[in-house]
Each structure stands twice: as C-alpha cells, then as structure tokens.
Amino acid sequence: MTDNENDKGKANRGDEFLQIFKKGAEFTQELLKENERLRFEILKIQEDTKPDETTGGSMDEVAQLRARVESLEKEKEEVLDRIRLVEEENQDFANRYIDVESENNMLANLYIASYQLHSTLDHQEVLQIISEIVINLIGAEEFAVLLVDEKSHDLQTVATEGVDQATFPVVQVGEGVIGQAAQSGENYYVDNLAEYTKDLESPMVCIPLKIKDHVIGVLVLYHLLEQKEQFADVDFELFTLLAGHAATAIFSSKLYSESERKLSTIQGFINLMTK
Questions:
Q1: 132 found inside a domain
Q2: Edge-to-edge, what's the strand order for the sheet holding 171-172?
Q3: Which range of residues forms the domain containing residue 31?
Q4: Contacts by 263-270, CB closer than 8 A, 24 or more apart
Q5: DSSP state, 246?
Q6: Is position 133 within any domain?
Q7: Dihedral pair phi/psi, residue 213, rounded to 5°
Q8: Angle between the 123-133 and 56-117 helix axes, to the nearest 10 degrees?
Q9: Each residue of 39-87: pLDDT tens digit?
Q10: pLDDT, averaged across the chain
C-alpha cells in the first residue's frame, strides 16, 4: 500500500470518527430534551398530587418516570464517554498525520540536498550549494566551512557566511573546539543555544566533514536566523548528511579540479612540443 493510500485511509477513518461524533452529539441533544420533558412531567405530577391524595397509581407513575430519567442519565453518560473517546482518537490521528507530514518534508529536503550536492563537480559550486543548504534548510545565518590543508595539516577557511573570512583564524587539528572535533570526528553542540555568545574559536555547532573515518574538513555554526530558536530533528539529519555527502562532494570536486588543472598543463606542454 502506498503512502497516498495510507493517507486516504487515515482521512476516511477520520471522517468516520467525525460522523460518529456528530451523531453522538445529536443523540445527546435528544436525550437532554427528553430528560427535560420527563423532569417537567414529574414536577407537574408532584404539584397535582396532594399529600392526602397519594394513590398507588400516581406514585407508580412517578417511580417509573424517575427510573426512566435515571436510565436516560446513564445512557447520556455512556454517550458522552464515547464522544470523549472519539475526540481523543481524532486528536491522536491528527497528531500522527502531522508527524507523517513532517517526516515526508524531511525526506524531501534530504533528497533535494543530496541531489544538489552531487549535481556538479565544480569545487566552488559545491561549496556554494553547501552554504545554501545550511542557510535554507538548517536556518543558519553565520557559519564557515574549513578544510584540512594537505601540506600544513591545519584547518583553513574556504567559505563563510556572515563572518569575515579574512579575520578567521587558522585552526590546528586537535586544538580548541574546532580542532578537537576535526581530530575526533564527533559532532559538537553547545548545551544551551539561548546562552551562547559568539566566539570564532568556539562555535555553537561543529560538524566534521568526513569520508568514513577520514575527516577532510569542518562545518561550524555561530548564529541562527532570528525565527530559528532551536534545532529540529530534521536539522540533525541534515548534519549527518553534510558529514558524509558534503565531504564526498567536496573531495570529488577537488580531485576533479586538480585533474583538470593537470590535464590543462599537460595539454599545454603537448601543444608547445608539437609546435
């Protein structure tokens, strides 16, 4: 059964519960009206019956009416209990529907992000796509991407947003929050986002970009968009995606760029020799 069929089934089930709820409400109104009518009749009989004129027949009628009222009260309570149960089930279905919608949106966002990351081999374009994912899907306003330099083995900034790249310090692997995250390969999050104060050497979030266990860089976040007060489950999924897919896309585009430069150099030598 497809997701659409599941959604339709849930919607039909919700409509059925709604119809039951409406019928129960109508039945309750009828019971209340009947209850009011019987109470009125009881009062009328009691007023018409004098203390010295209490006959067995009138007392029997009063007793029957009282029994009928008690029975209707009991039925009303049962109907109200059923209505409360249906309301709880409707609320449960509504909550589950919201969860399904959230999961579908999350999967769609993850698919789009993954597709975009692997849609090009241009190194700068890959870095731009990573920045767009961090801004649009995670909701970060200030962040930076650092890559491990193959020669010096330190972390150098290659892309920033809301942060002056020229003032960003060179980070040694193993030193500070960023360097330790690059060394361990473990994600880092501050305990309380609301109390965080911006510090270039100590970001609120630090995500190592790694291929298997090999860390090639780090994504660091310093400030979220104003409407973003905390991280959602989809954000952590996106962090996991960036840790792997972004690293692969960066590594592949970097190799491709280097091979293109080497090929261009070789082609230049060949052209020079053939001339």
A1: no
A2: 171-172, 154-161, 140-148, 214-224, 205-211, 188-189
A3: 3-115
A4: none
A5: I
A6: no
A7: -105, 5
A8: 160
A9: 666 666 655 554 444 444 566 777 888 888 888 888 888 888 888 887 8
A10: 79
